[in-house]
Amino acid sequence: MSADAITGFRVTRAGPLALLQDAGRFGVRHLGVTQGGPADLHAWAWANRLAGNRWGSPALEITFGGIELQAECDLTLAVAGADLAARHNDQPLALWRSHRINKGDRIQFGNPATGLRAYLAVSGGFSAEPVLGSVACVVREQLGGFDGQGLRVKEGDRLSVAAPSGQTPKPDQAPEQEQPDYAAPVVLDLLPGAQIADFTGRSLFDAFNSEWRVDDRADRMGVRLSGPPLQCRIKSMISEGISLGAVQVPPDGQPIALLNDRQTIGGYPRLGNLTPLAASRLAQCQPGQSVRLRPTGADRALREHRAFITQMVG
């Protein structure tokens, strides 16, 4: 926590899972440490931009809602992402826009209506001491978060915020086209992987022409997809590095899309890799929701990602 940080919120009720996340922990995977960071990069980035923060500023990732915060000072904040019935002093709080709140005000989150994860950003960003260069909270590895020990936010915690560093130009509201409808049909762009030629022709047809159901076995490590079993001719592999969005296919043929808290290496064949924005979209899918996979090329995926980053930091 920086010397000029102040207490921004007191947690009066803790929900199931609220974690501090900056852009992620990089350059440490050779140590077996995963990246962490926001499961939905898109919503996290927009919350920070609407709060007037630079790229990488820590924000609160709220999964399933249920948390209540009381402001300990006047603040500018923004909430983007899932509709978790956010309220300000018992009145509905509009998403995807900035708000000014006063000391003593209460911010509450209820149950998910659409999506799973909302992001709360405050002007200046939340403040914590970095661990291995990041405050990203990874519970499994006991790293990051407000205390550095990888603990989720709990009742009674006081959440520190940093003083805003000058005026950063920001919009008051995200454009309508940047506000996803998380209940709409989901199509996920996938870059074909190194082992894709080793899947049977029938499996490749099924992979890209079937609806996949999001299994209830889903968390920040990965999301299992249920559908027609995919068959691969490779029966064993030497473990190799695993990137964000990698879609592994274990022996049961049901794909697993790996997210931010994934393991650093894996030995299952990969159908391919979701683009970063596709991985973000999947992270908002509720159990039972249907998704489709769409093959895409590296050039298109790179253009899309560069355009997104430019929009967020420009």
Can you describe what's shown?
- The chain has helices spanning 41-50, 201-209, 276-282, 298-313; strands at residues 6-13, 17-21, 59-63, 68-71, 75-83, 87-88, 91-92, 97-101, 106-108, 114-122, 158-161, 186-192, 212-218, 222-226, 240-241, 246-248, 256-258, 265-266, 270-274, 290-295.
- Helices cover 13% and strands 31% of the residues.
- It folds into two domains: 6-167 and 174-178, no CATH class; 186-313, Beta Barrel (Cyclophilin).
- It is of the alpha+beta class and 314 residues long.
- The chain has a seven-stranded mixed beta barrel. Strands 7-6-9-4-1-11 form a six-stranded antiparallel β-sheet, with no helix packed on it.
- The protein is globular and about 60 Å long.
- The mean pLDDT is 95.
- This is Biotin-dependent carboxylase uncharacterized domain.
Number of helices: 4
* Strands side by side in the biggest sheet: 12-19-16-17-14-13-20
Tally of DSSP β-strands = 20
What would the average pLDDT be, to the nearest integer?
A: 95
| SS strand fraction | 25-35%
The helix content, as a percent range, equals 10-25%
- The assigned structural class equals alpha+beta
What number of structural domains do the residues give? Answer: 2
Give the C-alpha Rg.
Answer: 20 Å
Largest sheet: 7 strands, mixed, barrel
